[in-house]
């Protein structure tokens, strides 16, 4: 039970940090960004992989913090990066569990 509380808390803190970062980076009113941000895409891939595939409470917490950072950005930002990171993490999870 403590493990899930830590994951939830890390995700919420990451979402708040992502929202603050996004408002600092994009000061304009709501504009949907259509290009893919490589930096946040890498953060999302690493975060979702650590969160779903690590099996370690500390690495999982760091992973959900990073995943929450990307998901917590302003509306219209980070949606493509989150989808790519989650898809890659699910594919890696399935490959790891089908091989074993």
In words, what does this structure look like?
The structure is a single chain. Helix content is 76%, strand content 0%. With 100 residues, the protein is mostly helical. Helix 1 runs parallel beside helix 3 (57-71) and helix 2 packs parallel to helix 4 (79-99). The model has no long low-confidence stretch (mean pLDDT 88). It holds the Pfam family EhaL. Keywords: Membrane, Transmembrane, Transmembrane helix. This is DUF2104 domain-containing protein. The chain crosses the membrane at residues 5-23, 54-71, 83-99.
Summed up:
The chain has 100 residues and is mostly helical. The chain has four helices and no strands. The longest helix is centred in the N-terminal third of the chain and has 24 residues, at 2-25.
């Amino acid at each position: 039970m403590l493990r899930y509380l830590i994951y939830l808390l890390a995700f919420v803190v990451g979402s708040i940090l992502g929202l603050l970062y996004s408002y600092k980076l994009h000061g304009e009113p709501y504009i949907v960004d259509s290009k893919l941000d490589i930096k946040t895409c890498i953060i999302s891939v690493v975060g979702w992989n650590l969160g779903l595939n690590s099996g370690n409470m500390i690495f999982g917490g760091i992973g959900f913090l990073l995943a929450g950072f990307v998901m917590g950005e302003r509306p219209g930002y980070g949606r493509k990066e989150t989808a790519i990171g989650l898809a890659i993490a699910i594919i890696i999870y399935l490959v790891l569990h089908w091989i074993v």
